[in-house]
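hiii, so i know i said id send this last week but things got crazy w the move. better late than never?? heres the sequnce for the chain we talked about at the cafe, plus the structure i predicted for it. fair warning i was half asleep when i ran it
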Amino acid sequence: MFLVIPQGQTDPVAEKIVHTEIVAKAWYGLRFSNDEKYLYASGGNDNWILKYAIVNRTLKIADSIKLGAKWPEKISPAGFDMDDAAKLMYVVTKENNGMPFRYHKRRRTHRSTSKSY
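okay and structure toks below
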């Protein structure tokens, strides 16, 4: 998966990409922080969310939010959203119908009883 930042990481006048980042494993899920200083990307079967700082028009890994052990533990984060003010992250998973989320440094999991579609 290639991460390309459209604002600040491209030169719209010259129509050139000025930075790309390769993520080894990924499944759907990209989100900018509200202040646009960070980009979060789901980390596929590594079962984490990667946090990139946007520094000098490039992406630098800043943190990873571990949701569990790597595969074969069945989590696989897909889409996610965040409430920056409350420091909550909601993560929809591909493998276990769970919605792990993180509040500060604690991790809680709510497992949905609904069938995935």
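btw The two ends are 24 Å apart (CA to CA). thought thatd interest u
miss u guys!!
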